[in-house]
What we know:
Layout: H1 20-30, H2 37-44, H3 48-59, E1 101-105, E2 111-115, H4 120-131
Antiparallel strand pairs: 1-2
Amino acid sequence: MSIGTVEIITGRERxxxxxxxxxxxxxxxxxxxxVQVAEVAARHGxxxxxxxxxxxxxxxxxxxxxxxxxxxxxxxxxxxxxxxPLPEPEPTPPPSRKxxxxxxxxxxxxxxxxxxxxxxxxxxxxxxxxxx
Length: 132
């Protein structure tokens, strides 16, 4: 009598926490010519509806890559500046008009005040971060 192997198929894992980088990598695989979303989703063990949800989030600006940290050159100078006077602060110009702003209060009590200079993509990213 021979002993065989048994493979247990449990289906897709539920409630896995995918990193933003993983989501974007899977979405990039889906963009290749001739690739079907269902095949990519099955290869990674996720439902294709979840991949479509990530695609919508990326299109709406809610799923974006984290900025890459960069090194900044720094030079340390050994200078004694105790005798130098401090520069005069530049006067702030008077406001020409009152800037338009909206205030958003989330259900948990967090208030967010946004000026008109904030773009839609940035606002969506902030709201997504506050929602958790």
